[in-house]
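Key result, reporting period 2: structure in, sequence out.
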């Protein structure tokens, strides 16, 4: 006896449930099926023309959002990345920004200067003097890495953006121009109420440590270096390496 289902058996999984016959609605014919469906043309050209003219009239009376630059300056966010400004006094010529710049568009020259000792017997000190600091804004991609890595807050973003030139070679700006842009750098945002004071201000406000007189006198009377144990005495006590 075979278990095969005959081909003529009804498919109960897909067949509709028996019931009253429902008239099937006519299938909609698409644009690509016979090109018979064109409802837009049924009303004629006039309603579409009126609708288009109404849209034109509405746009004419709607205020424009275009800023009439340069007659009207755009109101930029205060932390906009317009140009990089330099505080020359803060720069120690450490070269960190120039090394981290992905475009290598920062040029720094400096020389060492000797500062004589201020106390008798003291050592002379040396410091770097900045000769040249330039940024080529035709190469700069405004990533801000140089500003982030500067350990002395010498570089800042300014929202100034009107420094376009007709010659691309004129976009190499030296430290004098970068210093002028410091005037346009906005002040830092105010701290949140209740937040801790910045480390620099907290250190400046810290009261000086007062050394009690007795401690100061004891420190002054203390010998500079304690004498170490005598080698002969250690050997006699049996603590030596040979014991
Ligand atoms: S701008 Fe900052 S990181 Fe760059 S050389 Fe000067 S101190 Fe160093
Ligand atoms: S913003 Fe980026 S690309 Fe421009 S000078 Fe600084 S590090 Fe270089």
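The corresponding designed sequence is given below.
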């Amino acid at each position: 006896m075979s278990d095969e289902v005959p081909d003529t058996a009804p498919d109960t999984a897909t067949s509709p449930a028996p019931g009253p016959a429902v008239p099937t609605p006519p299938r909609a014919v698409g644009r690509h099926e016979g090109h018979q469906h064109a409802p837009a043309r049924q009303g004629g050209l006039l309603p579409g023309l009126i609708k288009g003219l109404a849209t034109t009239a509405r746009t004419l009376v709607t205020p424009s959002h275009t800023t009439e630059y340069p007659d009207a300056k755009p109101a930029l966010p205060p932390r906009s990345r317009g140009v990089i400004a330099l505080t020359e006094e803060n720069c120690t010529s450490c070269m960190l920004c120039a090394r981290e710049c992905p475009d290598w568009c920062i040029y720094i020259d400096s020389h060492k200067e000797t500062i004589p000792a201020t106390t008798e017997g003291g050592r002379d000190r040396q410091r770097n003097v900045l000769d040249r600091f330039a940024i080529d804004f035709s190469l700069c991609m405004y990533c801000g890495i140089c500003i982030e890595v500067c350990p002395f807050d010498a570089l800042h973003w300014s929202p100034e953006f009107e420094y376009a030139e007709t010659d691309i070679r004129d976009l190499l700006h030296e430290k004098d121009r970068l210093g002028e842009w410091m005037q346009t750098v906005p002040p830092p945002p105010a701290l949140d109420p209740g937040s801790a004071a910045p480390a620099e201000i907290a250190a400046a406000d810290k009261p000086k440590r007062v050394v009690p007189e007795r401690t100061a006198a004891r420190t002054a009377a203390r010998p500079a270096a304690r004498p170490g144990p005598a080698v002969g005495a250690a050997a006699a006590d049996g603590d030596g390496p040979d014991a």
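Residues 83-115+125-184 form a domain with the Alpha-Beta Plaits fold (CATH 3.30.70.3270). Strands lie at 83-86, 106-115, 125-136, 155-158, 172-173. This case is discussed further under Risks and Mitigation.
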